[in-house]
Amino acid sequence: MTQVKRAVVLVSGGMDSAVVLAIAREQGFEPYALSVKYGQRHTSELDAADRVSDAMGATHKTVVVDLRLIGGSALTDAGIDVPDAGGPGIPVTYVPARNTIMLSVALGWAEVLGAADLFCGVNAVDYSGYPDCRPEFIEAFERLANVATKAGVEGAGIRVHAPLLRMSKADIVREGMRLGVDFAQTVSCYRADADGRACGHCDACRLRADGFTAAGIADPTRYVS
Predict the structure, then answer these.
(1) Is 14 within any annotated ligand binding site?
(2) 189 is in an annotated binding site
(3) Is the dihedral of CA 99, 101, 105, 107 positive or negative?
(4) CA-CA-CA-CA dihedral for 59, 146, 142, 96, to nearest 10
(5) Is 151 a known ligand-binding residue?
(6) CA distances from 124 to 98, 108, 157, 167 (A)
(7) 18 known ligand binder
(8) Can you tell me whether residue 86 is helix, strand or coil?
């Protein structure tokens, strides 16, 4: 009897994590989708995460880690405006230690589930310049996971998968289409409204739109105006 492989997949509700969830499923994993309500400006992405997880038959859990108590980011601090486009250096939309925290929560759930695999949608090609989206971060976290957990010390070890790491946004769009991802269900905007409609101006909107254009595929994103 073949043993089912379980994996915890970080699902934000955006296009990238939807593709990663589809990849994990195609690779034969039983996916457990994890979303984090970290105090982001809107919950439209979390609503999208519910839709995406349900559409792909994944068990879905949302945990709360309120990073507004720390602040320091335009996505969690009402006193910092979200810019229309990113400039040089690390942008103000970077949330301090967000990916480290979310992967740590995913790691804990994986141990409970007996899962040895974590999936996340970080990308180091068409991205906003966040330090926790680089290959060095993924490699370092995997090393940490294997010295900080019972599964790493006594079990088969923990693997951190970042299948989009070196893909362009256009490649991600194409991969999602191949896997049957319904991008209309996803929300990527930093300033989306309560209905999930995108602003069309922030860095996340720009990267998403450019990806669909470069892939030659119609963009199903709903915009405010």
Answers:
(1) yes
(2) yes
(3) positive
(4) 80
(5) no
(6) 16, 25, 25, 8
(7) yes
(8) coil
The verdict on whether residue 15 carries a ligand-binding annotation is yes
20 annotated binding-site participant? yes
Q: Is there a binding annotation on residue 205? A: yes
Question: pLDDT class for 86, splitting at 50, 70, 90?
Answer: low
Is 199 annotated in a binding site? The answer is yes
CB count within 10 Å of CB 195 equals 10
Q: What tens digit of pLDDT does each residue of 4-52 get?
A: 899 999 999 999 999 999 999 999 999 999 999 999 988 999 999 999 9
Q: Is 106 annotated as a binding residue?
A: no
The secondary structure element, H or E, covering residue 63 is strand 59-64
12 is in an annotated binding site: yes
3-class DSSP state of 18: helix
21 annotated to bind ligand: yes
Backbone angles phi, psi at 184, to 5 degrees: -65, -20
Q: Can you list the domains of the chain with their CATH numbers?
A: 5-215 (3.40.50.620)
